[in-house]
Structure formats: C-alpha cells, structure tokens
# Entry
Amino acid sequence: MKTRDRNDAAPPAADRQHRFDAIRGQAGLVLGPVLFAVVLLTTGGLPWEQRALAGVLALVVVWWVSEAIPLAATALLAIVLCVFLGVADEDTVFGAFGNDTIFTFLGGFVIARSMTVHGLDRRIALRVLSVGAVVRSPARTVIGFGAMAMVISAFISNTATVAMLFPIGLGIVGAVSAISQENGGQDLRHSRWAVALMLVIAYGASIGGLLTPIGAPHQLIGRDLIEEQTGLTINFVEWVLLFAPIVLVMFVVLCLVLLRLNRPEVSTLDGAREYVVRQRTELGRFSRGELNTCVAFALAVLLWTAPGVASLILGDDNGIVTWLHEHVTEGVAAIFAATVLFLLPLGRESAGPGGRRAATLSWPEAAKIDWGVILLFGAGTVIGSLSSETGLADTLGSALADRFGVSSLTAITILAAVAGLVISETTSNTASAGIVVPIVVPIAVAVGVNPLVPGLVAAAAAGYGFMLPVSTPPNAIVYGSGLVPMTRMLRSGFVFDVLGVAVLVTGVLLMAPVVGL
# Structure
C-alpha cells in the first residue's frame, strides 16, 4: 500500500511541473518581443549597432530562460536578427560557426556516441561497482556511483553519463528492495538511501564535467566567450590543473551533504553484488568496437593535452611547442580522433556481402549527436564577439559595475557565481553561460581586475542548479524515476548550491595564481 501511494503521488507532481513549464513558456513568448522593443526605444543614446544588439540580447535571454521556443531555434533567430538589423554582415555572423570550439564539440560528441553504441561506458561503470565491497555498503554505493558519474562526465556530457548510470542504479535499488521485502524488511525504493543514490548520480555528473573543458558544452561556450572578449587563452592542461582540486573538494562535500541529509536506513545491501555480476555477464567479452573506441578516445586525450604538457616541459618559446599550439588545436584533435572511428574496422563477423568489414561507427549513428547544442554555441559566440566589436560589452560592463558598486576581484567573482547559479536553476546550462559570461567579463574589465577569474567562475557556475528538476537534464532524469521527492531535491540541492558556490569561488581565487591565470 505504501508503494502504491507514493507512485500515485508522482503523476500530479509531474503534471504540476508541465503546467509550470507551459505557463513560463507562454509568458516568455510574449515578454521577449516586448522587452526587445522596449530596449530599442529606450537606448537612443547608444549607436544603432549597440542598440540593436542589446535588443536581440534581451529577446534571447527571455526566450532562453522561459524556453518559449526550443533553445536552438532561439539561437538561429538571434544570428539572423543580427544580420537583419545591421549589427554585422553575414560573413561576420555566420563565420562564428567556423570556430575551433565547434569542432571540439563535434569530435567529442562523436566519440561519446561511440562509447554508448558499443556499451563501453556501461562496462566501465559495472567494472567499478564490482571492485571489492563497493555495492555491499549503502554509503560506499553512493560514493561509488558519484565517483563514476564525476569521472565519466569529464569526457562525455553529463546527460549521457546519467542516462547510462541511471538504469544501473535503478536496477540495484530494485534488486536490493526485493530481497529486503522478501526478508520482511522495508521497501527501499522509497528510502533515503535511494534518494541519495539517485541524486549523487545527477549531481556527481554535473560537477564532474568541470574536470576538463570538454566535460560540458556550457564550459566550452564560456571559455570561448572569455577568450573572445579578453584575447587570453586557457588550454586543456591549465583548465584541468585549475579545476581538478576544486572538483575533488566539491565531491567530498557532495557525499557528506547527501549522506547526512539522506542517511541510509540499512547497513548492508543484500543482492546488489549479485545484480552487478549478472549485468557484467550479460555484457560478454570486450568487443572490437569497445577497443577501437578506447583507441580513439586515448588519441583525443593525448592530442588535447600535448600542447599544454609540452609548454610545461619545454617552455612556451620552444619551436615544437609553438607548432603544437598552432596546428594541434582542440578542434583539430577532436575531429582527427573522431574520424579514426570511421576508419577502424570491427571484427570479421561485421563483414558484408563483399567482405568489407563495418567501421566502428556508422554515420547514421554519429549523426544522432546533439546538433542543437552546436547551434546554441554558435549563437553565443556571435553575440559575445559582436558585444566586443560594437562596444556594447564595455558600455554594459561600466553601467553594471556602477550599478552594483562592485570594484574588487572577490566581489565580482561572487557576483559571477551567484548570477550563474540563479540563472542555471531556471534554464539550460549552455544558455546560462551564454547569458552570464558576456555580462561578467565586461564588468571585470571596466573596474580593472583580471577578467579570467570571474569569467571562469561564471562558466562553471552555469553548470550548477541542483534544486529543481528543470535546472538540468540530469536532475530531470533522476526525478522522473519517482524515487526522489521534490522536497528532498530542494533541500539537498539548496545546501549543495550554497556550499558548492563557496568552494568554487574560494578554489578559483586560490588556484588561478598557482596555475598562472
């Protein structure tokens, strides 16, 4: 009876969420054009290019936050309006899609797709869970799933990571709960332990993306906007050195928060190990497709890190280092590694009638990557670069600096973190980065402090948003399980939001000088 009541309560909660989303979208659909017109009419003292771009930015922000139409569609409309209103010509606007980071997206997405197609990500997860007594203890199971989510999401999207780990977690919860009920125990599907397990998968994937710049789309967008507006670059190795200690501290804080607020009711998990063993058996032997995907992934990581490692060892003035930075960019490395997947053949069993073996990844499978994120990134790059070229960034930065009265690096960094966090609670991470970074960086420049620090914090904080199902796709996935009550997500997410921002701001302020940023 208890299980049925809980399940019956889930649909109304989902219905309320859908109604809220519909109202938000309808309101945004009207408010966006109204705000666009208001900005154009009330900024007569600015040059036309700045006025038009400010109007487009206002429209984009409202529609991204409200999700009045699909985010990618808003992105396309934004770049068309920039040309139509004379902010820049079409060559300048559409040229943003030749950005190196676009191809980093493409290559990374294709490699991640190959991992999913061949089950490499699932094999890695089950292998970790089978080590020692990880799945015998409720606390160790939560920590183990969180650690996997953190590490895997450093190289593939947090959504893909959660989509892979989520069914494994559900399977373990179901198996353990069934045995518990057979022995006269409670239904662990609606326990505090199950809540902690679901949330650590979602939250661990979100913070783990910070480990590398390619770990999440909003980070690549934020980094590119920072580089566009400041002329400074942050390579792969510098990013990892900066954020690795921060992510590790955040992970420890995450586990403490979830296990403290959702203390497990049991001390052992009977049946969990047997479930993992069965799942590993079903996977069978390591396939040729998995091996080839490992080769492509290792090649990508090698090429991504080569310029940064060479700089650390040989110095920036060395000829080899200069060549690597000029010719082995992250986009080139990602596309080269992804192309290898179309060259490496599978085993003999994949041979067709003509004897030709199938490639590791087919184009129809590769084409299933998230093209909408790429369009979103292109629009963000256009708006960011045009903000600098038209002078809108300087105008906006000076006005906001005077309005908020911020003048120190610490104050601006805190403002960046809070703004990124608040906006990410209501809209996508990629949209949050596209909104906050172009605002924060000009403020830092206007008051004469290092813009890299608040810019990086804004980009990182755009990946936060742990309180609501709508905040990120990982949150929505685990909430959809019906095992996570809204009140527990709100409470756990709020506490981790506050502590996470404190760790992020403190960590970046301390580590940036050490890394040399």
About this structure: Residues 2-42 form the longest helix (41 residues). The chain has a mean pLDDT of 77. The chain is about 75% helix and 0% strand.
